[in-house]
Structures are given as C-alpha cells and as structure tokens.
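debug: dumping io for the single-chain case to check the tokenizer round-trip. Nothing else runs in this session.
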Amino acid sequence: MIDTNAETPTRTWRAPPLPDAPARHFCTDCGLSRTDNPRRCGQACQFIQPDYPALETRIHGRTRALPAPGELGSDELFFGPHRQMLQARLAKPLAGAQWTGITTRIAEKLLRAGEVDAVIAMAPHPDDAWRPMPVLVTNPDDMARCRGMRMGYAPLIALVEPALRQGFKRLAVIGIPCQVYALRAIQPELERDLGLEKLFVIGTPCSDNTTTERFHHFLSLISPHPEDITYLEFRADYHVEIRMKGGEVRTIPFLQLPLSTLPPDFFPTTCRTCVDYTNALSDITVGYMGGQGEQWLLVRNDRGQALLELLGDEVVTQAPGSAGKRAGAVRGFLKNVELAAGGLPLRRMPDWLRPIVGWLMPRIGPRGLEFARARVEMKAIETLLHLQREAPARIKTMVPEHVVHLVRPYGLAREPVPPKP
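debug: decoded output
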C-alpha cells in the first residue's frame, strides 16, 4: 500500500495489515509472531533459547573471543565479533538525524548505488511522531523520513516476507538486537524458500525500550510541555538532551531524572533481561555508547566494511577513547538492582548531593569505551538478577556463555549462591 499521508510523492510502503501479536510475557513484538508461521518463535527468539555462537559463526565466520580462565578478555567479550571500532560522525550532519545520520545515510547510499532493492526500517507513525512504524523504502530520498529516535514496539520482521514476495530480493534491514536475532535465525529459510539473494543488516544498540504510551508519560515528567519535545537522547556524558519545537535545548543529568515516579515495570522484563545490548549479529553496529559525543561504529565483517566504505569521505573517523574506571559504578548498579526487588535500580541520595555527583560523573566516571563496557556489564548483571527473581527456569537456556563471563568479576553466576545459614 502506498503511503498516501506523505506531503510529497513517495515510494515508501507501509506494512500490510498484520494479525495481532500473541500475548506473551517475554516478547518485544519483533514481528516474527505476526508472520505466516508464528511457531518459528520457538527457534528464532532471543528470549527463548538463543545460540549466539552458532549465529555469530554463520554471520561473521567465527564466534566472539571469550577469555580463558584467569584472563580478563578482549573487547569482543563485551561487544561481540568485530574487525574495528571507530568514533565517527558525518562531516555534514543530516537534518533531523538523532546524531549525524550515519545509519540512514548508509541505507540511502545502498539504494542509490543499486546494491539493494529496498530497505526495511522505522519511520514515525502519522498519528504519533514518537511511535515507530515499520516501512519498506525503495526511494533513496525517503530515507530522510526514517531519521530520529522512536520509542515503542514495532513488528519490523513482519515486512521481510511480504517484501520478498513483491520481488525485492536484495534487502537492507535497520533493526535493534531482538529484531536482528530473529531475522538472522530465519535467514537460511528466507534464502531457501523465498529467494533472498542479499542481506545487509545495519544494527543499532538498544538502550532499553518501553511502550509508546509509557514513554509519553516519561516526557510529561521532564517537561511541562511534552507535546513540544522533538528530540530526546540519553548521552554518554550522563545527561539526557531534549530539544523543543521553538529551538530550546535542555540537558538533564541522569541523577536528576524523575525515575522514582515511574512504575517498577516501566521497562518490560524482556528489556531488563536482554543479552545482546550491542547488536552482535549485525554487519555494522551504529551507536553512541563508546563515542564520547559522536557515534560509535563496530565493523563486524566484510559486508560491514563495505557499508562503511559507501560513505567515503563523508564520514570522519578516529580511534575511540577510553577513560575512568567502571568497577565502582558497576558494583553500585549491582547493589541497586538487588535492592530494587524487580523494579527500577534507583540510586538513593539526598537531593542536595545529586547536582554535585551529577557534575562529577562526566569528569571522573567511565567514559568512551569504558562507559560502553560498564553499560554492557550492567545489562548482564540486570539480566541475571531479574531472571533469578522472575523466571529462574529460563536461566539455563536464555543466558549465553558470554554473559556468564561478564558477571563473574562481580561474584555472580548462572545459579544464585544460597544464603549462608
């Protein structure tokens, strides 16, 4: 169906009408359950029985390097298989981009070069700019409509089979980790049964998700005029940046966010038990955590290298930096998660102290790659503790080996240590 809501002629297609997603506790509605064969979720869901070593080997030619006993391990333990990591920005930032627009620019270049027939990505819903809407893009100019951050669940993978049936056999997909895992798991079937010829996967790290409705509630807590907020970003300098329709820009220290007023289940169990924060099965990951104010690229394989080279001299890169020590921050997070009893890990401190600590954190806390390592360790800790509390039977099949290595320095294991008598 052609998008008739656009102001100018377009060849961006929306998803066809889809069946409702089955009600499942561990589900982010990646779209697989809305396809013709929803039973594939049992083999292709990140939250059931993920097999990262097998998929990493198939996609990248090898699995991530895990440390030997007594070793600390390389950055592949934290971030997955990769050939290089870069701090990057477009020399000329694109209007409306979340950062400078690297992700959508790569996809646009793929279409202009004729490397793909279509790109599956997210665009803002016509009724709510914050609500993600999966779209199939065939016109390079329409990638501009996919710039920016959305918040909420969107069945991206439900568009893949309809795209192939329409004759689009060479695809690029921009997705978050749970979507990419499902896509990679069914990729051989798509190639065998529906003629998928080429697939480029541009991944973005996931910084936790919630429903669009709950995100609107969060916006109402940080601004008296939430309807005027056009941009929001959790930055690696421990601040949230918001921009308003009138051009005003505000930054809020993490410690001064009104998190205590959010419901304990503001982030669903799935997002609190994610084992792939950095989208390890993508060809190239484009994020922010290790970028120190710029974007952070992880080039994972030959296809990822080709995607980066498409940008040519449009992209400015340098080696990412790293500063500070993460251990104290991670241990503090561990303690807060343990005390939160399944809710949000809030750090309790007097109001007068929050501005002081908020000023100190960007200066003495982990920065650059050390910040990224800290966030990945925090997610691993959160995963294990929430599963131990809410779904202990899932730990054996849902927690991969690399997560076990990440939590081990903090005294955690797959099975909780019984209390001493």
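debug: round-trip ok. Residues 12-209+271-316 form one domain.
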